[in-house]
Amino acid sequence: MIYLGADIGTTRIKAIAYCDDHRRVLATASVQTPVHPTADGATHDPATIREQVLHCLREVVAQLPDRSDVAAICVASLGEEVVLVDEDGTPLGPTPTWYDSPGRAYAAAHPRATNPTYSLFLLRWFAERRAPLAAATVRFTDLGSYVTAALAGLGTELIMDQSHASRTGFFDLRSRRFDADDLSWAGGWADKAPRLVPSGTVVGSLAGPVARQLGLSGDIAVVSGAHDHFAAAFASGVRSAGDAMLSVGTSEAVFVLAPQVPDEAPASIDIGAFVDDRTWYVHRNVRGGQLFSHWRQLLNLPPEPAATWFEPETWPQPGSPVPLCLVDPDLSTATFANLPFTASPTDVMRALAEGLALNCRAMLAETETASGIQVRSLTVAGPAGDNDAWLRMRAAILGRHLRVVRTPEPTALGAAVLAQGAVRGEADVPVETIHVPPPDTDEAQRYYTGLLDAHGRARREPLTQLNRLPVREDQP
């Protein structure tokens, strides 16, 4: 049978068709995710996103040898964003993006310290700053679940999968229900909340008009999706307590799977329901890929993967200062140190990449402590996983062996195998992987030992020392 999966990502929307008879992807399609700048920041238009998902699915279906084999469809997506719909199930307007949400301003007012990107604060913003829209809202949900409901023709009977609910800030982990007090704090949304379902649940059949638009016929199941990072993990075989994932894209997520909800965790840690309805994730997330792309643009570097930036020939000569980048855990600032006047763009980008890797090392340690679980397997997925030199650098700084997914579009594939599991009761692990150990040459061990030591010392020195530029000998 064939299962269709879609991924609404921050940068691109992707769709794939997966055939479980041959355990391979038959077709793919993608478009850039449309973003609209407004006075409130970057926004997504839900109707436009829906049409772009349908466009990708239509392109995928057109490539299939036998359309009658399509059994189910599932959509994974980014999280935290909110779609408000009226009595006809029509979106009431654009939604601010998760990374540029005006709801952040309300996070400090909440009685419990929590993630400022959560939907909770965006709902409060809608209630206070867009009151007519809030009043006209019949139901709300996340972006991916809105598209899922549109595929099934559910109208205002919106659903939300529990992995997306875990990114709202008003999902009670132990009862697996929405918290009425939080929804009241956000502006009285309790009677407008969607129906909660586990990821990988059949929520309906593909609506006739949508099926005709896609060139499909027959009874095709529509299946609840998942947050993008966790869909990618599911496809990659990260499915048991103690498994961990490093998902690298526009954002960089580190999470560990745990058999139960931890009793306590710092405010920087997010905990939520994984896609299997029995396991919990302990998660940290930063916009590492976005920061890296920003600096590439500042330095006018090409967008192609820079395979040589992390190779030994780019390292400083022994005895020379090592350029450092000290990245704040929340990526609010980054401090460069030891950059000589002769520093190249490669020196800057390598230092930034190493700083992000050290930040990742700290995030992984945080998730292990919060979950109480020692990570037994660390899986890496995302575009950066195609860069062998980057992987060796990460393995060295993390001090761990990496299991690297080399299958394109793991999130869309995760949506497809969630659909497979909903229909057949079991889901494949159809990814290709390679194993990357930390480098073991004397040169690499000297370099990374020195790098870790230099970062440790730099963290303990005052900023005035870190920002002091080297003076050339010919200057007074």
From TrEMBL:
<dbReference type="InterPro" id="IPR018484">
    <property type="entry name" value="FGGY_N"/>
</dbReference>
<keyword id="KW-0808">Transferase</keyword>
<dbReference type="Pfam" id="PF00370">
    <property type="entry name" value="FGGY_N"/>
</dbReference>
<feature type="domain" description="Carbohydrate kinase FGGY N-terminal">
    <location>
        <begin position="115"/>
        <end position="234"/>
    </location>
</feature>
<dbReference type="Pfam" id="PF02782">
    <property type="entry name" value="FGGY_C"/>
</dbReference>
<dbReference type="InterPro" id="IPR000577">
    <property type="entry name" value="Carb_kinase_FGGY"/>
</dbReference>
<dbReference type="GO" id="GO:0016301">
    <property type="term" value="F:kinase activity"/>
</dbReference>
<dbReference type="InterPro" id="IPR050406">
    <property type="entry name" value="FGGY_Carb_Kinase"/>
</dbReference>
<comment type="similarity">
    <text>Belongs to the FGGY kinase family.</text>
</comment>
<keyword id="KW-0418">Kinase</keyword>
<protein>
    <submittedName>
        <fullName>FGGY-family carbohydrate kinase</fullName>
    </submittedName>
</protein>
<dbReference type="InterPro" id="IPR018485">
    <property type="entry name" value="FGGY_C"/>
</dbReference>
<feature type="domain" description="Carbohydrate kinase FGGY N-terminal">
    <location>
        <begin position="2"/>
        <end position="101"/>
    </location>
</feature>
<dbReference type="InterPro" id="IPR043129">
    <property type="entry name" value="ATPase_NBD"/>
</dbReference>
<feature type="domain" description="Carbohydrate kinase FGGY C-terminal">
    <location>
        <begin position="333"/>
        <end position="419"/>
    </location>
</feature>
